[in-house]
Amino acid sequence: MKQIIESINNIFSFIIPVSDFLWDFPTNFSWYANIPIIGNFSLAVILLVGSGIFFSVKTGFIQVTHFKKGIKLLAKKKSDETGISSLGAFLLSSAMRVGPGNILGVTGAISIGGPGALFWMWLSAFFGMSTAYTEATLAQMFKEKKDDEFIGGLPYYGKKLLNNKMFIGVALSLMFIIYAMCCLPAQGFNVVSSVGQMGEILSGNSISTTSALYIITAVILVVFTAYLAFGGIKKVTKVTDIAVPIMAVIYMITVLLLVLTNIGSIPYFFGAVFGGAFSPEAIFGGVFGTCLVQGIKRGLMSNEAGQGTITMAAATANTEHPCEQGIVQSIGVFLDTIVICTLTGFVVVMAHLWTGTDSATWMELDKLPKFLTSASALSPGNGLLDQITIFLISICFCLFAFTCLVGFFSFSEIAANRITRKKSFINAIRIIGIIITSFGILCSMAGTDLGNLWAISDLGNILIVYANIPLLYIGCKYVFKATKHYKSSDNSKFTSDIVGIECEYWDKRNSQ
Fold this sequence. Notes:
Layout: H1 2-11, H2 15-24, H3 30-33, H4 43-58, H5 62-65, H6 67-74, H7 86-97, H8 101-113, H9 116-141, E1 144-146, E2 149-151, H10 154-161, H11 166-203, H12 212-229, H13 233-261, H14 266-278, H15 288-303, H16 311-315, H17 322-351, H18 359-364, H19 367-378, H20 383-419, H21 423-446, H22 451-488, H23 496-499, H24 504-510
Antiparallel strand pairs: 1-2
Helix pairs in contact: 2-22, 4-9, 4-22, 6-17, 7-13, 7-17, 7-20, 8-15, 8-17, 8-19, 9-14, 9-15, 9-17, 9-22, 10-11, 10-22, 11-12, 11-20, 11-21, 11-22, 12-21, 13-17, 13-20, 17-19, 20-21
């Protein structure tokens, strides 16, 4: 088994340099890298942050002015049986946003760029909220009704904005399905591995990856995932409605307790973050660009604003106006980065293990062990409490991975519906996803890291960014018109006449 996995891993060894090249372009050319200040920014970062600034200004910083409104919308019940509530769609998107990257990505960014990277995460998230608003509003404007569900998102508004060309929708759907399928092995791997870690904590002994615990966990995960995948979007949302709040609350309480038991280190945290944002310590590379780019890149990859990957969830909501779910989805970026990522940052920065005698050892650890070691360092010093802390974090990591897993299935199904609504095709996508998830589980049980294959998710991310951002600029004029109508409070219903482009669902709903 190991030989098969390693062979597949080697086949995809070219993915990492291709992905890095596209994410770093054109900073990988000396003529550009030598340009003062600008030379630190890749095209992807410029597009994502620049777009966030542009959309913030054009919408009147709606992420600030309507933040309170968004909170109220989360508590609002949907008006009929079609689709899911704004809260349900928010939790479904949060299942994808709040994932293992909130621990691994933040830890990696801080270990490379220093504590100041967290400041640039906050900044990118603030502007990213307006980008999330823009893409979610587009998803709502051009959503379609399928039986008692809504479907929509990037492949749907992409097709609509480019003269209803079918091949555009198909191409964007295939891109997302391939991207999602390549992310599934990592999540299956993470779920099983974290359960194994919890078993070791409870038993106090090392557990073999071929033990009964791993086998039983693998079988339950595959069966439950298949049950949800074939149950459709509403069945998945029933799980995310429960799992997302639980994992968020457990994680926040656990980390806040660690912070409170180390309250004297809070001034150090803010000093390190704000000081490091402009003058990172030499141990982290000593250059402003490293700190800034790591913070922005990891922040955007965590909250996914501008990537179009959360737009499928935004389209599933039953709302009174397209802008409502745009406002709600902008809060999703806030939850992901300003809240969850910041909590991770508290643990890593406040532990400041890089400053001690074992700093070299800490630096050599993988991202998750780095975080767990930092959490242990902040524990009160009691062996039992230390174990409880690591156990609770492992539960959260497991749930982070699982909700991402089922989220990818739902979004893949929505994308597949843009290609064809034939049940045989939809079921084929579900079966392929289950097989690929099983492969990731086998990787965990074989003790093999399939890093090169998982790197395809990074490649998929950047390709989707380059596909989605131009579409947002094409469609933003309609979002700005919809925003103006939403803010006008004239009680008129939203239709195509408001924005000047056909919005079929909204015309059927509001033209009577």
